[in-house]
User: Fold these one by one.
Assistant:
Number 1:
Amino acid sequence: MRSFFSFCFLIVTLGLGMTAVAQSDPAAPATPAAPAAATPAAPASATTAAPTTETAPVPAADTATPATPAPAATQAAPLTQSDVSAERIFKQEAKLVENMRHYTPLVETYVQRLKPDDDFGTLPDRDRYFLGRLVLADNRLTNKVFKDHNQSRFFSRVLDRLNGFYRVNYPHLGFMQMVFLDQEFDKEHYALKFLRRQFLGEVRTLVFDVTPRRGKGSDETRFLGRIWVEDQDYNIVRMNGTFGPSTEMKYYLHFDSWRINMQPGLWLPAYIYTEESDAQRNSERKLAMKAQTRLWGYDLKHSGQQTEFTTMQVESADAVDNSQRGANEVGPVLSEHMWEREAEDNVLDRMERAGILAPDGEVSKVLQTVVNNMEITNNLNIEPEVRCRILLTTPLESFTIGHTIVISRGLLDVLPDEPSLAIVLARELAHIALGHRITTKYAFSDRMLFPDEKVFLQIGLLHTPYEEQTADLKGLAFLQNSPYKDKLASAGLFLKVLSGYSHDLSWLVSPHFGARFANGGVLRAATIDQAPQVDPKNIAQVPALPLGSRVKLDPWDDHVEMLKSKPVALLSIRDKMSLEVTPTYPNLVRFTTATTPSNATATAAKPAQPAQ
C-alpha cells in the first residue's frame, strides 16, 4: 500500500527452522501518492445506503473549524442524509490524523500467548512487552523505542519459538498503527452503512459498518469492520475490526480501538485490545493470543511541576524576614541529607518529564496511608519524610529512589488486597530505614540531560545483594509489628501464583528499574509459609487480579486514580483471570473543564484542534 498504513501487523512463516520477519512494504514511498482524481467504480452492494428501519441523522453545522466555501457540485443527484454523515466522518478522521502530528504519546503493548486448558478455557503461557513513543511525521509512523537492560535479550536473538512448526513476530509499530483507520479513509475508498444509535458510557454514538471499495485485482491494505461516531462533531470514538486482505504469509490481527475526549472537541487514541484465537486458519497449528495497548503522555510539555511557573510569585525584598538567620545555618549531616534529596528530586522530575512516572496524587496518598501504618507501629521517625509514587508501566516492580517508594501501575493492578500491598511497601520501607541511599551523582543536573527513550539506561536504582538481603529481614520485622501481621495468607497466595508464572510470563515480572519481583527471599518465603495451598478450582480463592483492575490512567496529563467500579460476582473459575490481559471498556464522557480542573492550564497552552 502507498501509505504509512501498509505495515504488516503480524507475519507468520511456516516451515521448520524458519523465522518470520515483520517489515514495511518495500514499495511504499516516503510520501504516499495522491489518490486518482476519478472515483473508482464500486459494486452496487458497496454504495452508501441507510437501512430501511432507521436513517443516519443529518449532522449539525461544523462549528469546530472555520467556515470554508462550499465546493462546486460534481454530481447531478442530491446528497442523501447518509452521504452528509459520511462526508463529516471522513473529514473528522482526516483531522484526527493531522492532530496526531502535534503529539508524541507513549505507547505500551503487552502481549500474552494462550494455551488451551480444560478448566479455564485458556491460560497465558508466553508474553511479550513493548514500550515506545509514537511519532507521526512526513506521512510516516515511527516508533522511538524505550530500551532497558532487560530488552537486550530480545534484540540480540530471534523471538522464542512458539512451537515446533512456526515462529511469530509481533512488531510494536503494527500495534501502534491500530490507532488509525487509513490515510485514504474517504468516499473513494470506503463505504459506510448506518446501523443504529448506541450509548458508549455517557456518549451517544452512531454505529456504521465500514467496507472498502476495492478495484479489480486490488491488494491494497484496507480496514474492514465497524465504527462508533459521537453524534455532535462526528468524531470516531471506537473502531472494531481488522485490516486486510490477509494471505498465507501475513495475517492482520483483529483489534478494538478506543478514543477518549481529552480536551474540548479533541478525541485521541487511548486503548487498543487485540485478540486472536485462530490466526493460522489453513493450518493444524493455531495461534491464540491477546494484547492490550495503552497510550498516554499526550501533554507532557505542560504536565506536572512545569505548570507551576505560571502561578509563581516573587516577594519584594522588604517582605523578607532577616531575623534569626543564624538558626537556619546548615550543618554537615543536614547538608548531606539535602544533597541526597536533591538527587532524589532530580530523578523523580526526569522520570515524570519522560512520561513514565505519574504526578503525585490520589493513588500516592493511598500508598502513603499503608506506609504510615507501618511507621507508627514500628516507632519509625524518618526524615525527610517517606513519599510514594506510581510508575506508569505494566511490568510488576517496586523500588526506592532515596526516600520515595515507587510501585508500578501493573503491580498495583494485580495485588488482591491491602496486606499484599503492605508486603511490597514493607520491603521498600526497610531499604529507607536502613539508609540504602540513592547515588548522589544525580544531584548534578547535567546527568539528567538525555533523551527520554534512554531513561531506563541512564538511571540506575538497583541495590546490592547484601542490601536486598538485609531489607528482607528488616521488612519482615516491620510486618510482624504491623496491623497486617495476621492477614498475610492472601499475600502468600499471590507470591505463590506469581512464582508459578515467572517462567511463562517472563516479561511481566521483568522490571525496568528494580529487582525482579518474583525472586525469592526471606520475606517472601516467610509470607508463602502462611499461605494455604493454591486451589485453582476454588472460585473463592483469587490469588491475583487481572491487569487493569485498580488504577485508571489519564492519557492526557498522566494523573492516576483508583478505578471506581462496582464489584462483580464471579460466575465461574474462568472469571478469576489472575495476571491476565482483558478487554477494555472505558466509560466515555465528554470533556468539561468544570470536572477536570487539573487540565485548565494545559487547555490554554495548546489549541485543541489545529487548523487544517
Number 2:
Amino acid sequence: MQSETLLCSVIVPVYNGAGAIERCLNALAAQTVAPGRYEVIVVDDGSTDDTAAVIARWRRAHPHIQLTLLSQANAGPAAARNRGAAAARAPLLLFTDADCAPTPTWIEAMTAPFADPDVAGAKGAYVTEQTGLVPRFVQAEYEDRYDRMAGQAQIDFIDTYSAAYRRAIFLENEGFDPIFTTASVEDQEFSFRLAQKGYRLVFAPAARVSHLHDSSVREYFRRKYYIGFWKALMIRWHPERMVQDSHTPQVLKVQIVLLAALIALAPLALLGLIWPPLNWLWAAVAATALLFLLTTLPFVRKLAQRSPALALIGPPMLVVRALALGSGYLIGTIHFAGTPPGARQPVISGWQRLVKRTIDIVGALIGLTISIPLVAIAAIAIKLESPGPVFFWQVRIGENGRPFRIVKLRTMVADAEARLPELVDLEHLEEPAFKLKNDPRVTRVGRILRRTSLDEAPQFYNVLRGEMSLVGPRPEEERIVRLYQDHHRKRLAVKPGMTGPMQVNGRGDLSFAERLQMELDYIEHYSLRKDFEILLRTFPVIIRGNGAH
C-alpha cells in the first residue's frame, strides 16, 4: 500500500557487500530530507558473507531511519531491485548501489525533476574520492558522458547507481528484466523501454553518489567485457540503439571497429615476412592505428586538463575499453545467436529497419520530385484565396516521444488555431482526438487539397529527414500524447507515417479508440509486406476521398 507521507523509497541491492554497505547506509542517513519522508529498502541478493548481520546491526543503531531488509536467493541485481520496488510504499523509487555513498543532497536533487508531472525517470551522476589513475580515468570517462547529456532536454539512458522512477510506471512496465543476472545493462534496457514509449527521462547532474570505481585495469576490463556481452542481447531487443543513444559517444563505436580492423590486419601483415606481396598491409596497419589515435585526441585533451599522467594512460586505456567491449559484444552475439532468450522481441528488427529506411529515402526523393510542381501550383492558389503563410508547421510527437515539426500546405484560415475554442469544447471532449466535418475554418482550396491529400505532400521532407516514415501510425499532437495510457504509448515505438492503417481504413471517420487499436495492431504484427500493402491501398483511398475532412 502506498504511503501518503513518504516522498520516496530508496532501494539498494547488495551481494556480499559487508565491507561496503555500511558506508552507503551512513550516507543515506545523512540526507537533507527528513528521515520521515523516505524509506530505505535493502535487498540482500543471497550474500554468503556477513552482509545481513552488518545491516541488522546498523538498523539497531539508527532507529530513526525507516529501513527494511529483504532477502532472496541469488538472482542478480535486476531481480533484487524489482523485489524492493514491489515492497516500496512511496510514489517515487530511487535506486543506488551498495558501493555508492549518496551525497547529502542526493534525495533532494533526485526527486526535484518530478515536480514536472511529465517526467517519468531521472538519472544522477558519479563522483569519486579515489586518487588512483584507473579510478580517476573511469571518473573522467563518466564526466565526458555527462557533458554529452547535459544539453539534452530528454534522455533515453539511465544507470541505476543514481536513478529514480515513478513507481506506478516502473511496475506497469515490469521493472528490470531479470534475465540479466549480473550488473551489466539491465538498467539501460529498462530506460530504453520507457524511452521507446515516449516517457520523458531527464538528467539530474546534482544527484551525485560517491562511488568506488575500478581500481585496476583488470577490474576495468572485466566490467566492460560483461557490459559488451549483455549488450549483444539488449541490441537484439532494441536494434535502433546500435545507431545512437543519449549516453554512448559515437566515437566509441568507431574505436571498436578500428581496433577490430587492426587486430584483423596485423596477422596478415606479419605474413608479409614470409610472402612479400603482403607487405603493403603494414601501411594499412599504420593508417588504422593512426586513425584510432586521432579519435582519442578530444578525450585525451580533457584528461590533460586534469593531469598529465591521466593523459598518458588515456590512449592505452581506450584501447582496453574498445577491446573489452568489442570482444564481449562478439562473444555475446555468438552466445545469443538464433532466437534471443526471454519474452522480449524488437518492434522492428535491425534488417527491417535498414530496408524500411532505404525505402523511405527513395520514396521521399521520388515523392518530392513528383509533388514539387503540384505544391507550387497549390501555393499560388492558397495565396490568392486567403492571407497567411503557404505552409502550416506544427509540433507533433515522433518515434520514442521525440517532438518534431511537421509541415503541411495550409488548408485553413490563418487564425484557425485561435478560432478552435469557438467550435469545440476541448475540456469536455469524449475523446482526445477529433475531426470536424464541414469545418468552417477550412478554405475552398483547402478542401480540394484535403480531398486529394496534396496538403500532406510536403511531409516527404519530414520523411527524408528521418522524422517520419512513408508508412506508420498517425503523427500525434502533444496534448493527445499526454492523455495516453501506458499501453497506448506502444505506438510511439516506430516513426509516424504519411500513410498508415488509419488512412486506409476510414481516415477521419474512425473513432480515437478504433484508430489506436489499428495502429497498435500494425506495430505488434509489423512486416515489410504490410507496409507495401498499405502503400498500394493508399492510392485508391485518395481517389475515393473517403474520410477526408
Number 3:
Amino acid sequence: MSSFISALMKQRRDAKKAEPDSGGRLKEIIEVLKKYNYDDGITPEITVNILQDLGPTFVKIGQIASQQAEYLPPEYCDALAKLRSKVAPMDIETVNAQIEKYLGKPTNELFATFDEKPLGSASIAQVHKATLFDGTVVAVKVRRPGVVDTVARDFALIEKVLDKFLKEDKGGIDIKGMILELENTSKIELDLTNEAKNLDRFWNNNNGREKVESPKCYRLLTCEAVLTEDFVTGREVSDTEYLETLSAQERERIAALIADNFASQVLTDGFYHADPHSGNVLIKDPEIGIPDTEPVASEPVQDDEEASEEQKMPLPEHGIEWIDFGMMGALSSKQRQLLIDIVTNVVMQDAYGLKRTVLQIAQPKGEINHGAMLEMCENMCGQYTGVDFGDFDLGDLIGTIIGGLQEENYKVDPFLTNLARGIIAVEGTIKTLSPNVNVLNYFISKVNTGLNFNLDLEHPETMNPEIAMKLLQLAQGLIDSSTKTAESLDMLEKGQIKVRTDFSFEEKALGTVNRLTRYAVRAFVIVAFIIGSCLLCAASAFTGEGTAITIVFRILGFAGLAISVFFAWRLYRNMKKNK
C-alpha cells in the first residue's frame, strides 16, 4: 500500500514538472474534442460522451458536477448523473498479463476456469467470472495497465490549468478543493487492496445477520491491481419489472430489512455503505427448504418482553446482498453520538441541545453569533413541529441542518455531508420498494433515550403515540431546564447574548427634564438680551444727548429689544407645543 502511494505520488510530481503541451496526454484530450460536431453547441449528450472518452478522472468530475443543480441546467445534471465510464474491454491477453504480473502466476494456475468475456468493463478495471479449484464461483476485477499514470497526469494537468487561470473560488464552489478531494478519492480507488479491506470489514460486520449478505474477499488472489471476491447473484432493486412480480407485503419487508441493516451499519458498526443506491442492493431468491422466520429484521431480539411480535416487521422470504464497496463511510463513536443527538434534539424540539450539537460539527468562518445560532436552531426545530415521525425524511432533516449552517457561514464536518448523501440514497432505494417504510424509525429503534422510564409499565404498546411523546417531552424538559438556564446565564456572562431592556417611563421623564432645561436656557438668553438692550437705550445718560455714539447705542438697543421680543414669542409658542 505505501509503495503504491509513493509510486503514484512520484508519477504525479513528474507529470506536474513536465510542460503540458509537451505531453501526449494533452494531445489525447485534443483528439477527443475533435471527434464531435458542435454545430448544435455542446449538448448534454456530447458532454457525456467527451467525459467518457477522456477516462476515469473526467468521468468522476462529471459525476460531481451532476450534483451542482444550482449552477448547471437540469438537462445537464440529469445526463451527467447517468455518466458511466464504459470503454472498450481489454483483450484477454492483456488481462492474463496483468494477473501474472501482479499475482506471480499464470491465470490457468490460479483459477480452474476463467471466462474470457468480461461481465463489465470500465475505465479503471474490468470484471471476469471465474471458478476456483474447489468449485467456488468468483468475480475477478483486473485493473487496466497504465491507468495509474493516466490519472496522475490528468490531475497534474488540471492543477496546472487551475493555478494559471483560477485565482479564486467561482460561484461559491471551492473548485481546487473539490479537485483535491477527487484526487485523494481516486488514489484510494486505484489501489484495489483498499476495496478488499472494505469487503472484509463489511462482511465481518454483517456475518450472522439473517437475510443480509455481502461478497467475501479472497486475499490470496488479491493485490493492488487484482481483486477476487464472491460472484454475486440476485436482482437489482432498480429492476422495476422484477419488483412487480413480488407482493406489496414482500416488497415492504425487503425495504424494512434494508432500512434496519443500514441503521445498524451507521449506529452499531460505524462503517456503512456510502453509495446505497438501488443498483448496489441485490434481492436474493428465497432459499429452498428453509422455513420462513419471523424475528425483527437484521438484529436478533434480546428480550421478548421488551416488545411484542405484532410490532415487529417479519423478515422477508427474499434476502438482500450489498455490492460495490468503492465508496464507504466510517464513523467514530463520538460522531455516531452526535448524529443521535441531532435527531433526538429535533424530534424533542430542543433548540438549546441542537445548538450544542451543531457547534461540535461545524466551525465558524468568523466570530460566533450565539444569539443568531440559537434562533437558527429554533427555526429548524419549528419546521418539524407537529410532523408525524412517519413523515420525517432523515436525509432531508440532516440536509436542512447542513444548509442552515452553510448559510450562516459555518464549515460543516465532512462526515455529516457524506452521511447525508448516503441516507438520501438509501431512502430513495427504500421508496422504490415501499413508501410505507421510513429509515428514521429504524434509527430511533436503535437509540436508547436514556430517560429510563416506561409510559405504561404493564402495557407500553397500548399508549397513544401523541400522549407518549408529550410525556416524553415533559420529562425531557424537566431534566434539561436547569441545564438551559445555566447555559443562558453563561452566554449572558460571556457577552454571547445581548439583553435589551425597556426603560420607556424613565426615557419620558428624562425627555421632559431635558425640554424644561432648554426652555430655561432660552429664557435666560432672552432676559440677557432685554437687559443689554435697555442699557444701550439708556446710554444717553452717560454720553449726552444728540451725540453720534448715543444714536448708535439707541439703534442697537431697540434692535436688541425687537430680537428679544421675537425669541420670547418663539419660546412661548414652543412651550405650548411641548417642543
Number 4:
Amino acid sequence: MGQEWWRTAVVYQVWPRSFADSGGDGIGDLRGLIGKLDHLSDLGIDVVWLSPVYPSPQVDAGYDISDYCAVDPVFGTLADLDELIADLHARGMRLVLDVVLNHTSDQHPWFVESRSSRDNPKRGWYFWSDQPPNDWSSLFGGPAWQLDGDGYYLHTFAPQQPDLNWEHPGVRAAAADVLRWWLDRGVDGFRLDVISMISKDLSAGSPMGFGPRLHDDLQELHREVFVGRDLLTVGETPGTSVEQARLLTEPGRGELDMVFEFEHVSLDRGANKWEHVPLRLPALKRCFADWQQGIGEGWNSLYWDNHDQPRAVSRFGDDGEHRIASATTLATVLHLHRGTPFVYQGEELGMVNAGFTDLADYRDVESLRFYREAVAAGRPASDVLSDLQRSSRDNARTPVPWDSTPGGGFTTGTPWIGTGRATTHAAAQREDPQSVLAHYRRLIRLRHEVPAIAHGDFTLLLPDDERVWAFTRRYAGDELLVVANLSAEALVPDLAGWDTGRLLLGNLPDPTPVLRPWESRLLLRKAGNPVG
C-alpha cells in the first residue's frame, strides 16, 4: 500500500470479549471475529486493532498478560489467530495487535521468578524496594506499592499488574523479542498500551510516566524491531502534551507513528474521571485545533470511543431523540480532521451507554473498586451508581448487537455482561441508507477517494460559536468545508462564500440553508474559486 499507508487508513478496534461469540459460552472469540470480517470489509476498514487475546487471569480484561506468545483458550488458538491474519490480508486489511509492555500479570513467569528470591536474575526486571520510595497511588485506587514477602513491588494499575523495569536491559531485549515474534507471524503493527509509562522517575510526584529514558527506549525499540518494516505503531500516552506528542511522532526521530492523547476526553472531567464538569463546545473545538496545528511533522490519531471510554453518543451527543443524527455528526467532524480515524466496535451502529442500574451489572475492576472506596468514604450509593452510569468503562463493553435474535446475534448463550440499552442492530441498518452504518460507509469511502481529507491543511472557523463546529481542509487546489450543528436547535451558520459549494456528504436528507438539529455537511470548492 506504499509508504505511510496509515495516513489514509481507517482503523477498527475489536474488543474481542464483546464482539462476536462463536461457541455459545457468552464470550466473544477469534472465530466469532473471523465470521464478521465481511462486516468490516463492507464498512471499508483498512486495519483491525485487536485488543489483548493473550493468556491472562483477566483481572483487567486481558491487559494483565501472563504469556505474550500465545492465545488464551477462552478466545481460541494460535491457529485461529493465524487464520485471522490470513483472512484479513486476503481482504486487503491489516492486523494491529494490542501489547502491554509497561506491566505483566503477577502470574507471568517473569514475575513468578522475580518474586521467588532477592537473588533471582529476574528480580531486577520489576521494581522492588524494602520500603515504598514514594507515596504514589495506583491509577485503580489504593497505594501503588504492594507488600509481597520481604519487599514491596510497584503496580501502577491493579496489584496483580506489576510494572516492568525498563532500566534493565533484559526487559528491553525480551520486549523486542516478543514484538519480533508476532511480526514474524504476519502481524502488521502494534498498539502499545500506556507506553509513555515505561520510563519512570521514582522521585516524581506521580507514576504518569514520561521518565528520563522514554525517548531512548522507544528509539531503541524502533531500531531493533520496527525499522525497515511496513508497520503501524500507535502508543497510548495518557497525560501527553502536544509538544511531547510531536517528539514521539516526528518521523525523523524514529519512535512511533502516532499516539493516543487524552486531552479531549478529559475536558468534561474534574479532579478524576468520575467527577463530571460541563463541557462547552468552544473548548472541545480549540483542543482539536491545537492538536491539528501543533503536531508539526508528526501525526494525529482521531478517536471518540474505545474500550476505556464511555460511548461518545451519550457523552458528547444526544442519545435520545437525536441519537442517529448526533452519532453521524460526531463521526463527520472526527473523521474529517487531519489524522488517522479509529472506529471502536459498535460506534458505527450508534451504540450508547449501557444504562446499568444495579451494581451487580458491572464487571470492570476499576469501576467496582471506585464504588467500594466511594461508598466507604460516605458517598450515597445512588450518587456513585450515577457516576458509573456516566463514566464506567463497562459502557463500552456491552456486546455488539448484530441482529434481532436472542442474544442479539452476539451469542447463543448468556452474555458475560448485560446487553445494555437497545439501539438498532447491524442487520436492520445494513440496507437502510439513512442509518448510522450507511453514513460511516460513505464517510470512510470519501477518505479513500478525496486526498484533501487525509493530506489537507486545517483551519478552524467560528472558534467561539457554542453550537457550530466548522473548519476547512485545503490540498492541491481543493478546499473542503466541514460544518456541523452540535445542538438541538436549528440554525443558519455564518459562512459566507460557501453557498455554491458542492455537497459531498450530509447526514440528513434534503438539505436547505438551515442546519437542523445535529445536522452536518461536507462541501467542496476550488480554493479561491467557488464551484457549483
